[in-house]
Design goal:
- The longest helix has 31 residues.
- 44% of the residues lie in helices and 11% in strands.
- Helix 2 packs across helix 9 and helix 7 runs antiparallel to helix 9.
- By secondary structure, it is mainly alpha-helical.
- The strands form four sheets. A two-stranded antiparallel sheet has the order 1-2.
- Bound molecules: heme C (HEC).
- The site of heme C has 23 residues, from helix 5 and helix 7.
Length: 270
């Protein structure tokens, strides 16, 4: 009984990130020591996302201090709300009702997003999975989040992505290529998405010359954003890990004395 419960407890962290996704998630390894990346991520967030998405569980001041940004620079270049003070929460003014009218859904607060939904890898994949879809109100859809209400706000940077369609040899149920019985030539069929890899992200292809950034540069922008949101999800993470090491060292040191004392006491029992 106890053993089963322990096994379940061990499995819980695995369940947290195990979300069912439409496409496989790309790996994203956050690095909270990379202050420059966090600062760039915040800059992109404040410029492109904050108008719609609040970070209302996070304060400007704490963020500035953690990211090594002087308060005056933060207020001048990153805080666009003239009424906001440095100690204010990073909220915005877009109400849920208005947003629902405009986009069909309210943009969620993103402070804890990477903690709640699939980890930073989910976010990283989502931001790279927008593709052209003329049937949608903003002309884009998302492979990971079908029929998403959000426009692709970084379209100018990334460029237009399209689902790639290609003729590939048709396979029979037994795995062999299907051949035309008369000519003996292999039969091909058009496939869109899924198993195709092209320039851009499989199964999406990037239309050359439509974006300001190269593929690698765009990936870096999204990496920095994901890193920043990983930070806001748990701003004390680094402090905790640093203090944790001291606590463990202290316990190891303390153990020696407890052990010696225990030995002294147990002498009396023999
Ligand atoms: C014009 C408003 C607007 C802007 C600007 C905007 N978003 Fe969104 N975003 C939305 C809306 C609306 C939704 C909700 C979509 C839905 O539920 O269909 C959303 C949803 C999301 C989601 C959640 C998807 C999910 O899994 O639920 C993420 C992550 C996200 N946006 C990130 C960003 C980032 C990062 C930026 C800046 C680069 C940004 N958004 C800029 C409107 C916006």
């Amino acid at each position: 009984m106890i053993k089963n419960m322990l096994i379940l407890l061990l499995l819980i962290p695995g369940f947290v990130f195990a979300v069912e996704t439409a496409i496989p998630l790309d790996e994203m390894e956050p690095d909270l020591n990379d202050k420059a990346s966090l600062q760039r991520g915040m800059k992109t967030f404040m410029n492109y996302c904050h108008a719609c998405h609040s970070l209302k569980y996070q304060r400007y001041q704490r963020t500035a201090d953690d990211l090594g940004i002087p308060h005056n620079l933060m207020m001048e270049h990153l805080v666009f709300d003239p009424s906001a003070q440095i100690g204010a929460l990073m909220d915005n003014v877009l109400s849920d009702d208005t947003a629902k009218q405009w986009f069909g859904a309210a943009p969620p607060d993103l402070t804890l997003y990477t903690q709640l939904k699939g980890g930073p890898g989910y976010f990283y994949t989502y931001m790279r999975s927008f593709y052209e879809d003329p049937t949608r109100p903003f002309g884009v859809n998302n492979l990971l989040f079908e029929n998403v209400g959000m426009p692709h706000v970084l379209l100018d940077l990334q460029g237009v992505q399209r689902k790639v369609c290609k003729d590939i040899p048709k396979l029979a149920a037994n795995g062999g290529e299907v051949r035309d019985p008369l000519t003996g030539e292999s039969v091909s069929e058009e496939k869109c998405g899924e198993e195709l890899i092209e320039r851009g992200y499989s199964p999406l292809g990037l239309v050359e010359g439509t974006g300001q950034l190269s593929l690698e540069e765009y990936d870096q922008v999204i990496y920095d954003l994901a890193n920043f949101l990983y930070y806001t999800g748990d701003p004390s993470r680094q402090d905790r890990e640093r203090i944790g090491i001291y606590v463990l060292l202290f316990l190891a040191f303390f153990y020696v004395f407890t052990h010696l004392l225990g030995r002294e006491y147990s002498k009396e029992f023999h």
